Amino acid sequence: MKITNVVSGVALQNFRRHRSFALQFPTQSTVIIGQNASGKTSVLEAIAMASTGNSFRAGKIEEMISFDQELGRCKVKTQNDDGSDEVEVIVTRGMVQGKRTQHRLFSVNGAKKRKKDAVGKFFTVLFRPEDMRLIEGSPARRRSFLDVPLSVLDHHYGTSLKVYDQTLKRRNKLLQQVREGEQPRASLQYWNLSLIKHGEILQAARKEFLATFAAVSFPLNLAIVYEASVMSEARLEEYLPREIAAGHTLIGPHKDDISIILHDGSRELPVAVYGSRGQQRLAVLWLKYCELEYLAHKTGQKPVLLLDDIMSELDADSQKIVLETLTQYQSVVTSTDADVVHTVESILGSEKVTLHTFLERL
């Protein structure tokens, strides 16, 4: 089966510790080997930035800029049935040559674009060690799993998510002021309606996304339960006394969660509680595989699979599933273990794998 490469190259300038770096992706899979702190993950970060507009690791944009530089750049060349594109993201400290500027600047083929018009030229699914905590980690981590692909697929979702978060902060501040007698309860009404409006958009999209998981075949018989924290005028009124006392909003999409259920004969077992470590790993793989399938179905384009030093985290069963998935998608794989390239070659064949090695730490 021939896999069409979606990403053909990446170039970095003053991006993290890369002063100047370029890499081509001529084959279905590219394996990047290097020590920790050698710059492997930065390559994946740049690809994901060009795809989603956001970093999966930076707490602040400034972290992506090389020390003593005003800005950093990442360029990703892509190709599809309509031709090729070059997506560039420039990250700044907010000031360039003495002039205030945006912290992120986007362009496609040299033409400046808004974020929503620059992202989505291609799609990525990232799998890294931190994802192994999706099952037993915080609900916020699982909400992020929902929000990232939905925001890239539909900028209206991303806009509603941003407005919802801003409104939530404003309403929480007002709740505290109402508690202190500084504002009347009526001051909450506008913000209530905004929360409900945008919350409904978020939860409808999340529900539609999760409903597709049932059709994805997988070695384990898994199901997902969407635990939506429904928000309405009646429920906000019901919760208002408690929210005023607490000083923050107690219901809504920011309280949503998901549970993974393992069907074991006649039993339905929450994987987070009853699943073995191996079953929890497989459940995370299932979530990622469902994300891949959803993006492919919605866009008609196969996403690029980014695996960040994940093979060492997986047992034999999980590794087998990941390796089989590599046969269906373009991938960029990083590892500290040089043997990983041979593992990937054993599945794809050496002619479909390109090796790049970082010889030392940056």
Q: Roughly how many Å is the radius of gyration?
A: 22 Å
Order of helices and strands: EEEHEEEEEEHEHHHEHEEHHEHEHE
Q: Taking strands numbered 1, 2, ... along the chain, how are they ordered across the largest sheet? A: 2-1-4-5-8-9
β-strand number? 16
The CATH topology of the largest domain corresponds to Rossmann fold
Described by strand count, sense and barrel closure, the largest sheet is:
6 strands, antiparallel
Uncertain runs are none
The top level CATH class name of the largest domain: Alpha Beta
CATH superfamily annotation of the largest domain: P-loop containing nucleotide triphosphate hydrolases
The total domain count is: 2
Name the helicity range: 25-40%
Q: Strand pairing plus helix content: what structural class?
A: alpha/beta
Beta-strand residue fraction: 15-25%
How far is the N terminus from the C terminus?
A: 38 Å
Shape: globular
Word description of this protein:
The chain has 362 residues and is α/β, with parallel strands linked by helices. The protein has ten helices and 16 strands. The chain has helices at 40-52, 115-118, 139-153, 155-179, 189-211, 233-246, 271-274, 277-299, 316-326, 340-348, and strands spanning 7-15, 18-24, 29-33, 71-80, 83-92, 95-96, 99-100, 104-108, 111-113, 124-127, 222-227, 257-264, 267-270, 304-308, 331-335, 353-357. The strands form four sheets. The protein has a six-stranded antiparallel sheet with strand order 2-1-4-5-8-9. Strands 10-14-15-3-16 form a five-stranded parallel sheet, with helices on both faces. Strand 14 (304-308), helix 9 (316-326) and strand 15 (331-335) form a beta-alpha-beta unit.
